[in-house]
Design brief:
This protein has 10 helices and 6 strands. By secondary structure, the chain is α/β, with parallel strands linked by helices. The chain has 2 domains: about 140 residues, HAD superfamily/HAD-like (Rossmann fold); about 70 residues, DNA polymerase, domain 1 (Orthogonal Bundle). Strands 3-2-1-4-5-6 form a 6-stranded parallel beta sheet. The structure holds 6-O-phosphono-beta-D-glucopyranose (BG6) and magnesium ion.
Length: about 220
């Protein structure tokens, strides 16, 4: 059997931070008088901070100087970080820890593949950093999802071929990135949003150990 690579996105997959990204962006959008709905927010999931701001400005047809953009990027991150101050294990989404534990018990390599530059402190605060054999985040990549770079680097760190990698993602861009990399894509969330994924689960409580075992044996 060849070595598998189990790659997890962070925001919206492991931790319930997608809502904080949304709230922080919404504040910027409000200041700029840009209508920014939950539906618009789907376009931002998995997408880098810089690209997210561009998408919001495009939604509002707002032209801005680089100086203003830099200011809003800092403002957004400060606001986002303010939500993380008291973060602990309770922020981990239901069913995630049992899956990580099952993979560890079965000696399966685990990596993080996230667009976020705040990934490491989040894994530390929630006490789960020890599960990860490799961490690839927004500081390590130059191309944002749906570019597969982040997942390809993660698989490489785990000494696995892309075809043996399994990606858990809550974003359309992330599912597309996994598909482009020819990895198995597992969407976590709603079918109507993540229909491009090979498998879709509402959340990790719906994923059985039998399903994971089948992925390991594939
Ligand atoms: C992704 C989130 O994981 O990380 C996006 O889904 C976010 O919403 C991106 O914009 C970058 O995160 P950060 O923490 O570097 O701003
Ligand atoms: Mg995500």
């Amino acid at each position: 059997m060849r070595t598998k690579a189990f790659i997890f996105d962070l925001d919206g997959v492991i931790v319930d931070t997608a809502k904080y990204h949304y709230l922080a962006w919404q504040k910027i959008a409000q200041e700029l008088n840009i209508d920014f709905t939950l539906e618009h927010n789907e376009l931002l999931k998995g997408v880098s901070r810089v690209r997210s701001l561009d998408i919001i400005l495009e939604l509002g047809n707002v032209q801005a100087s680089q100086e203003d953009k830099n200011k809003w990027l800092v403002q957004k991150n400060d606001e986002y970080l303010s939500y993380l101050v008291d973060m602990d294990q309770s922020e981990i989404l239901p069913g995630v820890i049992p899956v990580l534990e099952f993979l560890k018990q079965n000696n399966q390599p685990i990596a993080l593949g996230s667009a976020s530059k705040n990934a490491r402190p989040i894994l530390e605060k929630t006490g789960i950093i020890h599960f990860f054999d490799a961490i690839v985040d927004g500081n390590d990549v130059s191309n944002a999802k749906p570019d597969p770079e982040v997942f390809l680097i993660a698989a490489k760190h785990l000494n696995s071929n892309p075809a043996d990698a399994i990606v858990f993602e809550d974003s359309v861009a992330g599912v597309q990135a996994a598909n482009i990399a020819k990895m198995i894509s597992i969407g976590i969330g709603e079918e109507k949003t993540l229909h491009e994924a090979q498998y879709i689960f509402e959340d990790f409580t719906q994923i059985t150990t039998r399903f994971i075992q089948e992925l390991i044996n594939k």
